[in-house]
Amino acid sequence: MTLDMPIAQQLLTGMADFQSPWSGMDVSAVRKAARSYFKFNIQVASELYWRGKQNTYHLAKDFGALRFPYDNCWMEWRWPSTMIVEGKETPAPQETRLAALTEVGPDIYESKPDEVVGSLTHLLIQTPGHPIICWHVSDFLETDPSGKYLHRKWLYPRDKTPPTDVDMLGQTAGTELNVLYLALNLINCRNVKTGKAGYLSVARSGREKRNREPRLDYHTIMLPGMDHARSSRPSMLGSSDVMPLHRVRGHFKTFTADAPLLGQHVGTYWWGWQVRGSKESGVVVSDYKLGAAS
User: Beta-strand (E) ranges in the chain?
Assistant: First the structure.
C-alpha cells in the first residue's frame, strides 16, 4: 500500500472500512471518486500549515486564489511528525491521515450565476488501524472566477447532527481543510509546479483480471527549488518529513501591473527561503529562474 495516498489505496483495493458515512454520500460513491477524480498528494501544504508559526487563519484574509485545478479532485495529506503549537515545536499527537473530495461545477447549483463558482468538499479522516471516518459536515464554498473568496456555508445532515454541534463540527473540519486551501494557493502560484509522483493499484475481478492491472497516477506539489524525488517520497510519523523545518519559512507575494516583478511579471508567486540575482540577469527564487526584464 502506498504511504502517500493510503486512503485512496484502501478504497481501490477493497480494504476500506468506514464509520459514520454522511448523508447522501455512500461508500460506493467515495470509491468511485477515488478511482475517477484527479488525485494530488498535498503533503507540502500540510507541512507549511502545521509547521508554520501562524496560529489562526481566515479564508477571506489569509488565502489567495481558491481555484481548483480540476472540477473533481481527490487530495490526501497527513499531519507532519512535528508541529508548531503556540510557537513551540512539538511532536504530532498521533499519525492522522486526511483526504478531501472536491466537486466544482454548475451541477452544484440548480441555476448558477456566471460570476460565482461553487465547490463542495467532503472530508475523510483516518488514524492507522481504525476505520475511515466520513465527516458529517461538508464545506460549500463560493468564489468569483478568479478564485477570490465570496461565501462559505457548512452543509450537514439535519437528521443526524444536532444544530448545537454544527459550529463545533464546522470549526474542526475548517481547520483541517485549511491545508487544502493552502494547497490551492500554491497550485495557483506562477512559479509552483505540479508533477506525477506515483501510482495506485486497482483491484479488479473476473474478466478484467486477464488484462493488465490498471495504475492510477497521482500528482504532488513542487515548490521552487524542491527536490522532486524528496517531495514525492512517502514518510511515516516519526521519520523525516517531506520538507526540512528550516525551509518552512516562505510566503506568498502578489505582483500587479502597477508594480510587476522585474518590471514585467504579474501574478502570485511563492517567495521561498532563498532569493538571489539581479534585475539585469534575472532572479532565482529557490532555484526557480525568472527571466530578466526586457
Answer: 18-19, 38-41, 72-78, 82-85, 88-91, 97-104, 117-126, 132-134, 138-143, 149-155, 193-201, 215-222, 251-255, 267-271, 275-278, 282-285, 288-290
Instruction: Give the global pTM.
Output: 0.81
Tens digit of pLDDT for each residue in 71-123? Answer: 999 999 999 998 988 888 899 999 999 999 999 987 776 666 778 899 999 99
Domain definitions of the chain by residue range: 6-227, 251-290
Cell 447522501 identifies what position? 24
Q: Collapsing DSSP states into helix, strand and coil, what is residue 239?
A: coil
Side chain identity at residue 71, one-letter code: D
* Bridge partners, residue 290, by sequence: 283
Return the axis-axis angle of helices 166-187 and 43-50, rounded to nearest 10°.
120
Q: What is residue 47's three-state secondary structure? A: helix
